[in-house]
Amino acid sequence: MGKIVTPSDFELQPYFIPGAVSVNSGEGANLDLDKLIDELEVRFLEDALGKVQADEFYSALDDLGAADQKWQDLFNGKDEYGGIKRVFVPFLFTEWIRNNEIRLSNSGAHRPKVKGSWTADFNQHFVEAWSRFLSLYQNVSSDSWGRYFDLGADGYDPKTLKEFIEETDGIDDQFFRLYEQQNQLGF
Q1: In sequence order, what DSSP letters do the residues of 71-132 get, joined into one string?
Q2: Which of 40, 45, 119, 175 could disulfide-link 111, Cβ–Cβ 3.0 to 4.6 Å?
Q3: Does any domain span residue 70?
Q4: Which structural domain, as residue segments, surrounds residue 34?
Q5: Is 15 within the bounds of a domain?
Q6: Least confident of 20-34, 98-112, 145-159
Q7: Share of the chain above pLDDT 90, in %
Q8: Is 175 among the domain residues?
Q9: What residues are paired with 148 via a beta bridge?
Q10: How far apart are CA 156 and CA 133, in angstroms?
């Protein structure tokens, strides 16, 4: 089965995940990240396309060159729409932060800490990545300070995944799930 993203998509900022790809020869990949990618791709696609269309898209990923044009356009992008990877990477990154940088316990939420080290606050990074995801997914296009993300070279806002699905013949938009904004307090 094809994939939308791979761990190598998280080697650079702003979505850098330390150890996303092992740099030492003979070591395996980051199995936790691979597992998260597999789980979240299915959820993400089902939220955007519904189960049946998500399965069709996954089948198309195996041989994208021979797939229907609508699936090629969904993956690669078309016109102002930049492709599904551009939307999915910030989504997966926020889930990585949520799953790996914040731990829940009986005494509340905390971040893991190794003796003799300090832990940076990932909250702002999470909110910025989530806002960027929303701006590309469903047209919530600003962060908490009102700045707009991803203006094109000629100053236009790119087409969102929601707009692409609504405008593409052959892709049903009735299953599209909307997400909520989140702020620094987790609301």
Answers
A1: HHHHHH-BTTB--HHHHHHHHHHHHHHHHHT-EEETTEEE----TT------HHHHHHHHHH
A2: 119
A3: yes
A4: 22-105+120-167
A5: no
A6: 145-159
A7: 28
A8: no
A9: 142
A10: 17
